[in-house]
Design goal:
Largest sheet: 4 strands, antiparallel
Structural class: alpha/beta
Distance between the termini: 30 Å
Order of helices and strands: EEEHEEHEHHHEHE
Shape: globular
Number of helices: 6
Strand order of the largest sheet: 2-1-4-5
Length: about 190
């Protein structure tokens, strides 16, 4: 049984002739918050897309929960939640409606929406149209959407981008709570 939620073994990835990732070795222990840092263009988002199997990796280089991603895609992705680039939020719907919509899509009881709003500190704004949310509120709603299916692993691509210092602290505290109280593993890029 692997102690790693994520493991990459000599991961290489090219877009055409351009090498994006060269020999990347990641080992993300279960139950940790793993900071995935690097300058723009270093391949952080590409790596996250590979971990989500949105980009296809060479075989036997990417393992989630000890299983090779290409051969175990469906089983693995059921255990993963993600926020990549901008959260997929419908601005004309309230925060709660966005979450209820995701619950219905995933066949999860609607009451999970309120639970998620409370978890990310958006209960007060539940019935406000999400296009009126601040950037920090939108990021928290995006994280709530990623958490609806109760994933073990959360992949967050630059969740604090454009946030003020207060918003950054809120996201950090949320990540700490998710790992300590809810047994999540988080890979966060910045």
């Amino acid at each position: 049984m692997s102690t790693f939620a994520i493991e990459t073994v000599g991961l290489n990835f090219n877009f055409g002739q351009q090498a994006i990732l060269k020999n990347l070795a990641l080992q993300v222990p279960k139950g940790s918050i793993y900071g995935f840092l690097g300058p723009n263009g270093a391949g952080k988002t590409t790596t996250i897309k590979i971990l989500l199997n949105l980009l296809k990796s060479p075989s036997d280089q990417v393992f989630l929960f000890g299983k090779e991603i290409n051969n175990n895609r469906i089983a693995i992705l059921k255990r993963v939640g993600a926020l990549v680039e901008q959260p997929a939020i419908y601005g004309h719907l309230t925060g709660k409606e966005n979450l209820v919509n995701r619950c219905l899509l995933l066949g999860i009881k609607r009451s999970k929406a309120d639970e998620m709003l409370a978890l990310v500190g958006l209960t007060e704004a539940a019935n406000k149209k999400s296009n009126q949310y601040s950037l920090g509120m939108k990021q928290r709603l995006g994280i709530a959407l990623a958490l609806v299916s109760d994933p073990e692993l959360l992949l967050l691509d630059e969740p604090t981008n454009g946030l003020d210092p207060n918003g950054i602290i809120e996201i950090r505290n949320l990540m700490i709570e998710l790992t300590t109280k809810h047994n999540k593993t988080i890979l966060v890029s910045s």
